[in-house]
Amino acid sequence: MKIYIWFFILILAGSCFDLSAQNSAKEPVDYVDPLMGTSFPQWTLFPGVTTPSGMVKISPDNQLNGWKAGYDYKTENIAGFSHIHSRTMGGLLVMPTTGELKIVPGSPENPEAGYRSRISHNNEIASPGYYSVILDDYKIKAELTSTARTAFQKYTYPKSDSARILIDLNIPTDNGYEILEAGITRVSNTEIEGFSVQQSLLGAEYNKYTLHFVMRFSKPFDSFNGWIGNEIKRNTKEVHILFDNEDLGVFLDFRTGEGEEILVQSGISLVSIDQARLNLNTELNPFKWSFDSVKEKCRREWNDLLQSIIVKGGSEADLKKFYTNMYRAFAGQTVWSDVNGKYVDMYEKIQTLSDPGSPVYGCNSSGPAALGVNQLWALCQPDLTNKHVKSLLEIYDKGGWFPENSEGIEYSEKPGSSYEIALMAGAYQQGIRGYDTSKMYKAILHDQTNPGKPHAGGGFAGKKYLESYLKSGAVPEAEGPPAITYEYACEDWSVAQLAKSFGNVSDFKTFTKRAFNYKNVFNRDTELMTAFIPHDVQGMINLSGRDEFTERLGKEIERSLESVNLASPDGSTIKRKLYSDDYFGGQTPLQAAYLFNYCGSPWLTQKWVREIMSGYFPGYTDPVSGTVDPALTGAWYVMSAIGLFQTDGGTSVNPFYELGSPVFEKIIIQLDKKYYPGGEFIIEAKNTSAENRYIQKALLDGKPLDNPWFYQSDLADGGTLVLKMGPKPNYKWGSGTYNAPPSMSSQLTKEETEEIMKYDKYAEDLAAWNQALRAYYYHKKEHFESLPNTEHEIIFLGNSITDNCEWSELFSNPNIKNRGIGGDDTDGILERLNEVTESNPSKIFIMIGTNDLSNGKTVEYIIDNYKKIIARIKQSTPGTKIYIQSVIPTDDAIHYTRRNTDIIKINDKLREIAAQNKLTYIDLFTLFKLGNNKINPEYSLDGLHLNGKGYLVWKDAILKYVEE
User: Fold this and answer.
1) What is the pLDDT averaged over residues 827-835?
2) Radius of gyration of the CA atoms of the chain, in A
3) pTM higher than 0.70 for the full model?
4) pLDDT interval class at 32 (50, 70, 90)
5) Could you give the domains of the chain?
6) Does residue 805 have a pLDDT over 50?
7) Is 693 helix (H, G, I), strand (E, B) or coil?
8) By CB neighbour count within 10 A (0-12 exposed, 13-18 middle, 19+ buried), where does 586 fall?
C-alpha cells in the first residue's frame, strides 16, 4: 500500500525565482499570490476575492462541470465570475459583455461558442481583497472585491451600444447541482433580486439550499431581459422556472461611453431575499459606491490575520510561499449565517443565533488532515477556533449530532469520523474555552457512544460503523478498511484525554481502552506506514521495532520521489525531483515526516520536512493532478515552515509541539492575550538555510532543550525558542528513547495499561446501580406492602414514571394506587404479582423495561417477561382490564445503559402484544421525545425520570383511560 500525506504542489507552490531578500517595507498581505497553484483546477482553490471565512468567494471560472471545475491558469479564457466557491456549493455567475448576445458559456477549447472571453495573464492581477483582468474579446476591464457576504464588482467598458451584464444561475461546479426552482425579478432599473433552489451532489438526498441575492447597479440599465433554456425573453419583469432544471439567466442592456465604469454590488443569503438585502445594505452602504474603500478594508482584514505570524530572514520566494499558504488555510472556510445571526438549519428551518458575532460555519476541511488546520487556527487565531466550537454546538443543538462539516452545515453521506471532535478537544486542552464546556463534553459523548444513522434533515449523522466497532473492537473488514478503526481509535484518545481533564476517571479508562483498538486490525507488514495512529506513535514503534520502523518510513518517502522535467517561467527546462501525486494526493498520514521524532531520529524529521516543503516546482503551469484541500496543505506548510507541529492535533491533556526545521531566521507568533497570556512567542533559527536544515542544539527560554518537542503551555506563556542550525545532522540531539514526544503507550505504565484493558464501565456501573437499587427496592417494597387493598382499585405498576408520587392525589381518586417500586424490573414484578392482583383490581396500567435494560437484560428477555405478566394477570383476575403504556424515552447519552434504540424495539413489540391480546396500547414515547428520539428535557429531571410538568403531561395523556 502507498503512503499518503496531505500536501500538494498546487498549494505549496511559490515563485521559482530566488529574488532579493525580504523587502522590509512590505506587509504580510503583500506576499500573498492567490494565483499560485491554480494551474491545477480545483473548486476551492480560487484566485478571486474573499474575506477570512467569507460567505462570498467571487472568482473567475473557466472549467466545465466536475471535480476539476473552477479556474485553471493554463486555460486562457474566462466564462464569468461566480459568487460561491465552497465545498460542493456554488452559483450566481456574472459576466460583462458587448456585441453579439450569447447565453451559453461555451467551452475552454471553444470560447467563441459562448459568452466567455479570452484573457492574457499579463493583464491579470490577484491579491487578497482584489482581482482584476481584461476580457480581451470585449475590451472590458473586470475588477472584484468583497466583504463577508457581498461582492463588489467594477466593469470598465469601451464605447458600445450593446454593453451587457449577464447573470447566469446554472453554472459548472465541482459536484454539480440541480435547480429545483429559480427566479430573477426586476425591482427597478438599478436593482434586481432573485433566488435559486439548488440540490448539490446530483442524486444525493442532502445539501439542498436556496441561494438568494440582491444586485444593484451604479448605472440604470436600459432593459431587463432573460432566458430559460434556449428561449430568450426581452423586456420582461421576471424569469422563473419550477422543476425544469433548465439554464436560467438575465441580461441587462446598457449604452456606454469609452472608459465608462459600471459598478455592481451584490448581497447573498441562504435565508431569504430580504436577508440578502440586509447583508448588502449592512456591509456595503457605509462605503456608498467606493470600490477602493471596500478593497482596502478587505486587504486590511487579511493583513490583520496574516501578521499574527511575522517571519523574517527568508527569500522572496519563501515569503510568498509562506503567506500564500497561510492565506489558503483561512480562505476556504465559510460563514453561512447572516449579519443578524439568521441561518438555515439542516431541516431547512430558519434559526437565529443569540450572538450574531459568533456565526455558523460550514464547508470546512474534513478528514484526518483537518488536524493540521485545527492546530494552525488554535495557534494564531484562537478566537476563530472558539467560534467554530460554538458553531458546532449550535448545529448539535438543532440537529442532535455534530456535522462532518464538509457540505454546507448539513450532515453529509460520509460514514467516517468527525474530526470536529478533535478540534473541540484540542481547543479545550489548549485553553480555548469560551463556550459551554459541559454541553460540549456531553455532546461529544453522545456522538462517540451512539451509532450513526440517516438524519431526518438529510444525509448521515454520526459514525456509520460504530455499532460494529463497539461490539468487536474494530470495524469488520466486510464493512470497511482498517483506516476507519484507526480513525475511531484516534478520536477515542481525544475523548479519553478530555475525560481526564474533566476528572471523569470512568470515561478516561473506557475511551483509553477503546483507543487501543487500532491493534485489533494493525498488520505490521502492510499497515505500518499507512496507519493513521497519531495518538500512539510509540505503540506503532513497539509493534514493529524502532529500527525497522525508521528504515521503512524513510524508504516509503524516498520511493515516492520522481525526477521530472519542468518548464520554468523563463522558458528554460529544470530537472527536479517531485513527490508523486500518489504519495501526496491522498489523505493520510499528514504527520508522516514528523514520526522520526518519536523513533530517536529527529534529524530525519528535519531532513524530510525540508524536502517536502522545497520538493515542488513553484510555478503556475505545472502538469500535475490531485484532489487535496488547499486549506489542509496550506496549514501543513505554515506549521512546518515555522518549525512546529502537533501530530495528535493538540488533543493531549498537556498539549505539546514537535520540532521540525524552520525556514525563517526569526518567527514572531503574536499571541491572543484573551487565551494566551504571553503576548508573543519568538523562534530564532540561527543560520537556517536550505543547507543548514539540521538542529544542532536548542534553548527554550534560555534553558537547554534536549527533546524535539516542548509543551504548548510554554508557548502560551510567551518566551523564546532558539535553535542553532547546521548543514549536518546532530545525531545525539533528541535521539534518546526518553526524548521522544509523548504517546499513549509511553504515557501509561504497564500496570496502568493492564488496569485499563481490564476495565469494564458497564460492569462497574451495573454493580453500583444494583447495590443502590437493592436498598431502594426494599425501602419501597415496605411502602408497597403497607398499602391497603380497596375494591375496584386501579393499579399503576412499573418503574421510573410511577416512582415518588401518589396517584390518588394526582388523579383525586382514592382507589388509584401506585404499586410501582423504584428500581423494579420485570423479574421483580413477576415475583410479587400475586400480591398485586389479590385485590382483584379493575384496571392495571403497566410500564416496565428501562431498569431491565440497565440490569443487562435483552429486549427479547424483557418481552418474554411481559407476556408472562399479562398471562398471569388474565389467569388470576380475568376481569381486570390491562393497559400497556409504552416505555418513555431517555437521554441515553447520560443513561447509556438504557438506549433509545432498545426502547424503540421494546415498544414495537409491546404494540404487537397489545394487538394480539386486544389490550389498549398507550404511546407515550412519541409524546415525550424530541426529534432525535431523546426525552424532552422540558419534562425530565435527569434525562430519565419525569418532573412535575412531565407528570401532568402524562396524566392528561392517560386520563381518558383511567376514567373510561
Assistant:
1) 84
2) 32
3) yes
4) very high
5) 28-306 (2.70.98.10), 309-747 (3.30.2080.10), 762-963 (3.40.50.1110)
6) no
7) coil
8) buried
